[in-house]
Design a protein that fits this description.
Blueprint: H1 7-15, E1 25-31, E2 57-66, E3 70-79, E4 84-94, H2 96-106, E5 113-115, H3 118-124, E6 134-135, E7 143-151, E8 156-167, E9 178-186, H4 208-225
Antiparallel strand pairs: 1-2, 1-5, 2-3, 3-4, 6-7, 7-8, 8-9
Length: 226
């Protein structure tokens, strides 16, 4: 991935007005402590300036050239253990001086920040969504408490519901997440807020391929939470 791609990061590029997302990358930063609880291949050469100071919530800031004296700046708050993007700031057009001020404010809740490769930032921003799960439609106050995943070959949709959920519009307030239930529905559903669905399939009636894939994704989440 050579550009900001996939999901909200890709939308940042499209909204900047650049040509096909090709605007010059000015810089990419994340909070020190970003690596806590993550398995990172040392061969990638990604270093954490303050290991042991994070906790699963990572902020990423990206700036690209906008004209000759401005830049577009977008920020992302991500739950790197599970849920992916929780909050998007911008993109906004800033001067270099304004960027420095905003960057200090953006990372003010952390011990420090560090410049990182764009590929690392892209990797940090996605959780369940990186595994192909779609975020549910926000409920009251923008609160989300489920992800769903379609399996067209088996004509089923899997749903993971969790507590306490998180608000897509706020930086803080979400604590540890607990998987409340996982179930399968016959048919292909777009993301929506599922109740305890009366038509949920018995596990014995679920095709073994989507069943094993969902179990694998849940094991991935549990491993990240340890």
């Amino acid at each position: 991935m050579d550009h900001i791609v996939a999901g909200a990061v890709q939308r940042h590029d499209r909204r900047t007005g650049g040509s096909g997302g090709e605007a010059e990358l000015i810089g990419c930063w994340t909070n020190a402590g970003w690596s806590d609880g993550l398995g990172v291949d040392p061969a990638r050469g990604w270093t954490d300036d303050e290991p042991g100071t994070g906790g699963g919530m990572v902020s990423v800031l990206v700036a690209r050239r906008h004209g000759w004296d401005k830049m577009t700046v977008g920020g992302f708050l991500a739950d790197v253990y599970c849920l992916g993007i929780k909050y998007v700031a911008g993109p906004d057009v800033l001067s270099e001086r304004d960027l420095r001020r905003f960057r200090d404010y953006f990372f003010s809740d952390y011990k420090s920040w560090q410049e990182v490769p764009l590929e690392l930032a892209q990797t940090l921003v996605f959780g369940l969504e990186k595994l192909g799960w779609a975020r549910g439609v926000p409920a009251d106050a923008g609160w989300v408490g489920e992800h769903s995943k379609q399996f067209p070959g088996a004509n089923v949709t899997a749903v993971i519901c969790y507590e306490e959920g998180f608000s897509v519009g706020y930086w803080e307030g979400a604590g540890d997440q607990t998987i409340k239930r996982v179930f399968f529905l016959r048919g292909l559903y777009t993301p929506q807020m599922y109740p305890e669905h009366k038509d949920a399939l018995k596990l014995a009636d679920v095709d073994p391929i989507p069943l094993s894939e969902v179990i694998g994704d849940c094991e991935f989440l549990l491993a990240k939470a340890k």
